[in-house]
Amino acid sequence: MLQLNRYPYLLLLPRPSVTYLVSDPEGVRLTFDSSGTVTGEASYSAYGNVIAGGLLNITPFGYAGGYTDPTGLIYLVNRYYDPSTGQFLSVDPLVSLTDQPYAVCRE
């Protein structure tokens, strides 16, 4: 069960325990186990770089709830995002509405 930015995630890993993911609009901020013990924490820069903590050893979900692949790119539903450059790698599928082909948001 995964529900983005509304309820904690439930992530089943190949371990004998369940890990819960707690997120906000910035991304997955902490994880805890079934006993309520916090097992990991993370903070992100404005462009998605981990600035404190880190959860990749616990879950591939992080910045903005996106999936971080082994290359460090973040899949955000319709396209990949590179936090090291702060840019998407492909054109926004809604570019005709946004007029911002690669932007994260209109500035």
From TrEMBL:
<protein>
    <submittedName>
        <fullName>Rhs family protein</fullName>
    </submittedName>
</protein>
<keyword id="KW-0677">Repeat</keyword>
<dbReference type="InterPro" id="IPR022385">
    <property type="entry name" value="Rhs_assc_core"/>
</dbReference>
<dbReference type="Pfam" id="PF25023">
    <property type="entry name" value="TEN_YD-shell"/>
</dbReference>
<dbReference type="InterPro" id="IPR056823">
    <property type="entry name" value="TEN-like_YD-shell"/>
</dbReference>
<feature type="domain" description="Teneurin-like YD-shell">
    <location>
        <begin position="20"/>
        <end position="92"/>
    </location>
</feature>
